[in-house]
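To whoever is on call:

I kicked off a structure prediction for a single chain this morning and the downstream step that reads the tokens threw a length-mismatch warning. I double-checked the sequence; it's 497 residues and nothing unusual in it as far as I can see. Pasting both halves so you can look.
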Amino acid sequence: MRKIIRVIPVIIFVSIAFSHVFASDTEIKKQQVVETITSEELMDYVHELTDTTYRGRLAGSPEYMDVADWAAGLFKQWGIEPAGDNGSYYQYFEWPYTEVLSTGEVTLYQDGEATRLSTPDDYYPGSSSFNGSVRQELVFAGYGISAPELGYDDYTDTDVQGKIVMIAGRTPYTGDNPDTLNLWGKYSSPVYKMENAHSQGAAGVLYLNKLASPGMPHFPGFYYAHIDTHVSEQILGKPLEETLEKIRQQGKPQSFTTDFEAEIVSRTRHHGKGTTANVIGYIPGTDPELKEEVIMLGAHLDGQGYLGFHLPGALDNASGVADVLAAARALSEFRGEMKRSVAFILFGAEEVGLVGSTLYCENPVFPSEKTLLFMNLDMVGNGEGLALWHGESYPELLKHFETNNEKYTDRTLRSSKGSMPVGRPRTDGLVFMQHGFRTFHVGTTDRVNPLYYHDPRDTAEHLVPEIMRDVSRMIAAGIVDMANDDSIRADELFLIE
């Protein structure tokens, strides 16, 4: 009943609010439709997406599927056709998840003195930590990396069996050589670092990066939390960066047993199976040949979940989802008037490792050779300027957005030449590139408000509604023109290598 109560009023509101009669001339109609995309519409979507009802939109959880149902309900209301499994809007897959029941506890012990840390100032609880507690010696293990082929191992000559290790994010390599970055790429992953600590026999981890990280592995009897830099300085007796810089300069580990013990208490409930899904809809094209080509908009729908406190995920990524929804609603007014098909995909499980986008790319509804362009929207709600990264590699496509930016939004529009990613991919757009899809990364520039990343302060109040409005307006208008451009073909445009 709760889901029905939440979904129906939003759909009725949207239906009534946009019951317009538009001109028959395409250019005039485009202007009229674009102007129906408002800041108020965008923020209505954001407030729904960030509501506590959905508990941070954690992949695998029932609450994620509730928000997926809400989004699919909007697609259906707007006449956007389903493109998922068995005539549905969903491309389903299983994903385990862990409920965090409370913030738990982290306590440091030294010379008989106990220091109880507080959340969210000092630490965040682990999103996949085992339920229970552990108290053990605390070992500083640098970057937590074992890379024998690179001649580097933070665990060499360091006994961590049954102990708690303190490890930092990133890697000791700070150069920009693409080949070397690729060699180190997998070792920068916090998932790898947790798996490695567990395989080394550690009982727990204090991870030196205080942010919500829902993609961590779950191991029985293994506990962890994310601590702030000021806590690590208390333990090390000096700034963390000073210790890490020594590792980087010498290219050698600096691991040691501290004179602290740590206790981690977790209150969690693990679910080995959970259901999640990508949400996919499309507007079929009208041209007998061009309708086989598709222009696709995407944004990740999942968030960082709940850690004993709410993580709204407004910028990351309610902003991107809201822009996709507003563009989809506007473009639905052009059903029967666009030669190419236009598709919309909301990814599940981006935050746990780009799982939804990888699933789609390996099982595409619209094959890469028929996808004229994929546009990824991630964290697009804070700034004054617009960006279409990698757009300069495809001037035939970019021109449609440049023209419509001048007409309808008149923002500074930046772009760049495209290049294949090096190291560990961090967004869905890079997954698409790696699978041979022509990709634009939609962004904003010239930040206005503070940036809170994987942080409970990532709220709707820190978004800039006007930039979100203009992102969606530019995209919707540009897609109408691109969908009807007879001069380009998907199979004739090169791919970035």
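Update from on-call: the warning came from a stale cache, not from the record. Cleared it. Sanity check on the structure: The chain has two domains: 2-95+274-492, 99-270.
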